[in-house]
Write a structure and sequence with these properties.
Length: 146
């Protein structure tokens, strides 16, 4: 998962998807929220491997470093569950590249979107509200397109 300044994304991923381990791509500014989200989810923060990008908005060039970092964990996985929401567009791009690496390794990949339908103000007041999990097949939104 990518994780920006909203710790509710990681909280929802942990609570709703119940992973064995988490790979989180985040910024130095958002990094402290990882332990906070884990604590709120009653989950061991030691089970989170964190990659801190130097620039959350322009970290596209981090692809090779991310893949080197993630590959040993991906090779050890039975399945990879990917959250495509949270963080910046650049971090989401990196998450998708990690998912692609898992697929190339022959590891089954499931993609999800995590939604919080509350207003931004409500989310800021209580970042740990129950979010929704939407499974993605990869062909969403293609109906009617040619």
């Amino acid at each position: 998962t990518a994780m920006g300044l909203s710790p509710g994304v990681l909280y929802t991923a942990i609570r709703q998807l119940e992973p064995e381990r988490v790979l989180a791509i985040t910024s130095a500014e958002a990094r402290p929220h990882v332990a906070e989200a884990c604590s709120q989810a009653h989950w061991d923060a030691e089970r989170v491997s964190v990659y801190v990008v130097p620039d959350a908005h322009a970290c596209f060039a981090e692809v090779e470093q991310i893949l080197v970092w993630a590959s040993p964990l991906l090779l050890d996985a039975r399945e990879v569950v990917v959250n495509l929401t949270g963080g910046t567009t650049a971090m989401q791009y990196l998450v998708e590249r990690v998912a692609g690496q898992a697929s190339r390794f022959g590891v089954p990949v499931e993609r999800y979107a995590l939604l919080d339908r509350r207003s931004p103000d409500a989310q800021r007041r209580d970042p740990y509200g129950a979010g929704e999990v939407v499974p993605l097949r990869g062909d969403e939104g293609s109906a009617g397109r040619e």
